[in-house]
């Protein structure tokens, strides 16, 4: 009897845990995507990390 | 007793598995050779594009691309150059969004990755640059 309850409990835990995994994987990881985007944009636009972000350090001259 | 030990083992394995999945979610994979070369290509193109962003000729679109906003801000001699810069940049951007989705084995995320980038490009753009608001009209930052 006791064993049956235990195995039932184990099965329930498994089901819950698997459900959790599925949930985690279906949804788009918005925060991680933002972090990745920021990292790439900083590199492409050469934005320096220290203090005043939005000021790219490339002077916009060149083409004019 | 044996059942309890078995249950414990199952729990430990599951906990580790979930922790692993959560860790994998904490970051998107962006360190692939394709991403690196796209970044390099866009970075060197930016030196040419920056002036056009500043003059308002080129703006950031709401869908994660760039577009010619004001052709009059570009001299006739530069029209062709700016158009090919825009085309090349948008090709790289599309490839970048696709590649990040592919690198994470989630091709279906491409659209959401593009949407995330669209917001972040605008957020990180410099004052004076133009971007499209959600309804599609140009706004000066």
**Distance between termini of chain A?**
84 Å
What is the radius of gyration of chain A computed over CA atoms, rounded to a whole number of angstroms? 25 Å
> What is the count of helical runs of chain A?
2
The share of residues in helices of chain A is 55-70%
Number of domains of chain B: 2
- The backbone outline of chain A, from C-alpha atoms, is rod-shaped
Q: What fraction strand of chain B?
A: 5-15%
Order of helices and strands of chain A: HH
Number of strands of chain B: 4
Order of helices and strands of chain B: HHEEHHEE
| Order of strands across the main sheet of chain B | 2-1-3-4
* Basic shape of chain B: elongated
Largest sheet of chain A, in brief, is: none
Helix content of chain B: 55-70%
What's the quaternary structure here?
heterodimer
Notes on the protein architecture:
The complex is a heterodimer of chains A (64) and B (141). The longest helix of chain A has 25 residues, at 2-26. Mean pLDDT of chain A is 73; it is low at 51-64. Chain A has helices at residues 2-26, 30-44. Chain A is mainly alpha-helical. With 141 residues, chain B is α+β, with helices and mostly antiparallel strands. Chain B has helices spanning 2-26, 33-55, 76-103, 110-124, and strands at 58-60, 66-68, 130-132, 138-140. The interface between A and B is large, with 43 and 45 residues.
């Amino acid at each position: 009897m006791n064993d049956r309850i235990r195995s039932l409990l184990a099965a329930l835990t498994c089901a819950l845990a698997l459900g959790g995994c599925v949930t985690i994987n279906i949804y788009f990881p918005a925060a991680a995507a933002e972090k990745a985007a920021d990292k790439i944009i900083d590199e492409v636009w050469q934005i320096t990390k220290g203090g005043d972000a939005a000021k790219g350090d490339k002077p916009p001259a060149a083409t004019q | 007793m044996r059942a309890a030990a078995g249950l414990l083992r199952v729990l430990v394995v599951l906990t580790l598995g979930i922790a692993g999945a959560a860790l994998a979610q904490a970051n998107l994979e962006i360190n692939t050779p394709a991403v690196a070369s796209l970044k390099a290509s866009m970075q060197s193109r930016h030196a040419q594009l920056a002036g056009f962003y500043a003059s308002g000729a080129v703006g950031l679109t709401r869908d994660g691309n760039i577009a010619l906003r004001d052709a009059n801000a570009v001299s006739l001699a530069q029209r062709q150059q700016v158009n090919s810069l825009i085309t090349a940049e948008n090709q790289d951007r599309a490839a970048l969004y696709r590649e990040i989705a592919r690198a994470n084995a989630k091709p279906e995320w491409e659209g959401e990755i593009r949407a995330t980038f669209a917001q972040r490009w605008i957020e990180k753009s410099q004052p004076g640059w133009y971007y499209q608001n959600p309804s599609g009209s140009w706004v000066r930052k």
